[in-house]
Specification:
The complex is a heterodimer of chains A (about 140) and B (about 80). With about 140 residues, chain A is α+β, with helices and mostly antiparallel strands. Chain A contains 4 helices and 5 strands. Chain A has one domain: Roll (Thiol Ester Dehydrase, Chain A), CATH 3.10.129.10. Chain A is elongated, with a radius of gyration of 16 Å. In chain A, β3 and β4 form a beta hairpin. Chain B is built from 4 helices and no strands. In chain B, α1 crosses α2 and α1 packs across α4. The radius of gyration of chain B is 11 Å and the shape is globular. Chain B starts with a helix and ends with a helix. The model of chain B has no long low-confidence stretch (mean pLDDT about 95). Classes of the chains: A alpha+beta (about 140), B mainly alpha (about 80). At the A-B interface, loops of A face α2 of B.
Chain lengths: ~140, ~80
């Protein structure tokens, strides 16, 4: 786990990691959230709706942003203040997501950083983009 | 910049941060008067104030300012 302090950070710093969207994680997220919507749980239903397979929960993909801030940037001293995301393309079970964040703004008074975040699948397609505000809670 | 101008611009900042166009600021307005003004939104407010007025709020005053009047004092002081 990284443990950056505010003074060690600068605009343009970037961290990334890969996260797998497995059927086990889909099942665990369904149990955790109670979201039994058939788009995420029924392959034939998802196909009728025009998708090639069950669509992964957007909030499951988004949950990797917690790891991005809490483990990578800034890591240990992270206190997530807000998350804004747009889902650009569907994510499916079996996808491997490259989760990335780059510091785009910093405020030294309140030790807040703004991360520009994005996720790409194994084909290099951007599936999610967004912005996170994180307090560096040293 | 006059105090009235500070209040005018500050009102717009508050309305933007709290997404509430009905906010009317007075010298004695405090976090108790604005429902969503909690510690997290206070951070957003400080960042927005610094950006709007191109100032840095002294670290020690971030958590000690007791009302909007005091916030206006800081803005005027730091804008000199």
């Amino acid at each position: 786990m990284n443990s950056f302090r505010f003074d060690e950070l600068k605009i343009g710093m970037r961290e990334s990691f890969r996260a797998e969207v497995s059927s086990e994680k889909m099942h665990a997220f369904r149990e955790l959230s109670g979201d039994c919507n058939p788009l995420h749980n029924d392959e034939s239903y998802a196909r009728e709706k025009g998708f090639r397979d069950k669509v992964a929960f957007g909030m499951l993909s988004s949950s990797f942003l917690s790891t991005l801030a809490g483990v990578y940037l800034p890591g240990e001293h992270s206190l997530i203040q807000s998350v804004e995301v747009k889902f650009l393309k569907p994510v499916y079970s079996g996808d491997s997501l490259l989760v990335s964040g780059e510091i785009s703004e910093m405020n030294s008074t309140v030790k807040q950083i703004v991360l520009k975040v994005s996720m790409e699948n194994q084909s290099g397609e951007r599936v999610l983009k967004g912005k996170m505000k994180v307090i560096v809670n040293e | 910049m006059t105090r009235d101008e500070v209040f005018e611009r500050l009102t717009e900042v508050f309305r933007e941060v709290f997404d509430d166009d009905s906010i009317v600021l007075e010298e004695t307005t405090t976090s108790k008067d604005i429902e969503d003004w909690d510690s997290f939104e206070h951070i957003n407010l400080i960042v927005a104030v610094e950006n709007e007025f191109s100032i840095k709020v002294p670290m020690g005053k971030v958590t000690t300012m007791k009302d909007v009047g005091e916030m206006a004092d800081i803005i005027l002081e730091e804008s000199k």
